Amino acid sequence: MIRKLTRQQLICHINLPIFSIISEEADLLGRECYVVGGFVRDIFLDRPSKDIDCVTVGSGIELAERVAKRLGRGAHLSVFRNFGTAQVKYRGMEVEFVGARKESYSHDSRKPVVEDGTLEDDQNRRDLTINDMAICLNRDRFGELVDPYHGMDDLEAGLIRTPLDPDITFSDDPLRMLRAIRFACRFGFKIVPETFESIARNRERIKIISGERIIDELNKIQLCERPSVGWILLQRCGLLQIIFPELQALSGIETKEGRGHKDNFVHTVTVLDNVCRAEREAGREPNLWLHWAAVMHDLGKARAKAWDEKIGWTFHNHDYLGSRMILPIFRRMKLPLGAEQKYVEKLVLLHMRPINLADEGITDSAIRRVLFDAGDDIDDLMTLCEADITSKIAEKVRRFLDNFKIVRQKMVEIEEKDRIRNWQPPVDGIEIMQRYNLSPSREVGILKDSLKDAILDGLCANDRDEALAFLDAKWKEISNG
Ligand code: ATP
Ligand code: MG
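^ thats the input. predicted complex w/ magnesium ion below
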């Protein structure tokens, strides 16, 4: 519930010792001082926040130094001279101090010319009206709301709008286009047509923004309650084509002989929302990397798409093709290349396995193989697979979900019995090399894989003696052949 607050009510929200100290120190310096931006917005949204941005007309660093000194031992000051800002950490709160500034941009440079300015100048350089409200901290105006662009009205109406002409706001700092979409997604707000059309018009400007800043916004969209809203807005304004063409490529429906396939972009973002819902229902924290796996799980479909006279549209092998796309995309998009990338790649590669189990028969050996390949990520894989059922035909959905129930139950039984999740075969490559006097070679790989397969298929017991006997027989077979 969003509602206007009186000055008295606002004062209740800033009635903390730290604000009184800032107020007193600003008055002693004879400077205007305001709390601005997200903190003010979040008061009205009833979302308490610990990040506080203070703007003063004059040096932010000087004010921060005095505030830190007054707070004494519990306070920690960091000064960023290059940026003219300073931060005070105190009792779990982070207060950022900055001098009011005026920014002027020229078209061919990303960096603005920054000069000292008034509060008005400072409010003119902000991104959205809802992020552009200030509350005065000086004693004689303590709690007064300064809202020149009617951010409060937009907050009440659920509207995203730039304070100035959107073409200027977005062209000055194109990251603001992503911020507009992120806030629309986070709060379920509507971007006003004038602002949205401007995003579409200025979309190419996003190219001057670094990958790191872009991914930061995308990650925040990914962690919203319904990230699909953000992805759909990105798609509609044309930004998606620039920042994530592989996902854009899934968009649209092709029809042949009266048969169309589903729109795989719409399907993908539905799967993503389903994953988020499943996490909430299970009381789990959102897992950003599972969300990325959901966004990327069908990327291979654009390349795998084929028309078969008998069955219609097919996407054979899209899981494998998709998994091969993950590393280059992670690299380009500045996503982390370690365990996170491997996890997403693995889930993309395996995402058809549980569903195929239903067709191929839910045999013990098939279950053991998925458990072995997925390891500790088996639960996430199952969450993804269940989320992947987006059919509108109730009967079909029920059939799949019933199958998954059986799969999950079998997994529990087999895991209890065989402990496959973190299992390693009882004889490793080094021992194989010693036993048969081999140097690292193709043969070692064949022996290793055949042992693993035999155990997973239940042809050899998971026991050292049996494994050695199996290997001896296999070795005889290869060395003779
Ligand atoms: P969050 O809840 O994500 O922290 P926020 O609105 O506080 O949201 P911040 O990135 O912390 O976002 O920025 C604080 C304030 O600084 C914003 O509310 C906005 O007024 C301003 N701001 C941040 N980034 C920009 C930008 N790129 N262009 C203009 N103003 C910005
Ligand atoms: Mg913030």
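The first strand starts at residue 33 and ends at 36.
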